[in-house]
Automatic annotation (TrEMBL):
Superkingdom to which the source organism belongs: Bacteria
SUPFAM superfamilies recorded: Cobalamin (vitamin B12)-dependent enzymes (SSF51703)
InterPro entries membership: Cbl-dep_enz_cat, Glu_mut_E
Source organism: Amycolatopsis ultiminotia
Record's protein name: Uncharacterized protein
Keywords: Cobalamin, Cobalt, Isomerase
Amino acid sequence: MAEAAGAPAVDKSSEVYREARALVEAVLDLSPRLGPALVTAFERGVLDVPYCLHPDNRGAARSCIDGDGRLRWTRIGGLPIAGIAAAGTGSPMTDSGLLEALSYVSRRSDEGALEHHEYRTVNTGSSL
């Protein structure tokens, strides 16, 4: 994959980059056209979104948020990231664990939005 001109440097050795690249390449290998490739990827479980209830989603992949706030895979299902991702590094998700993970993401997003709003208000005199 080519990098865009002026794009920030990317750490190609990072686990996140290597996982993302494996997912993108696996999808692109399924069809020369992106639309059919995406449909096939979900049908085969090459793409699988943890906890997504959509009927086209396999639901075999599972994740958790670790103690450092990082997303970790507890099961990779059919995702093409075996050997890249550290699967099974978290505890199996429970209903209370899922609620805590969602709350964590919500709190982080809300804090970021509030900080951005306060910055804009203080530095530009405008508000949202």
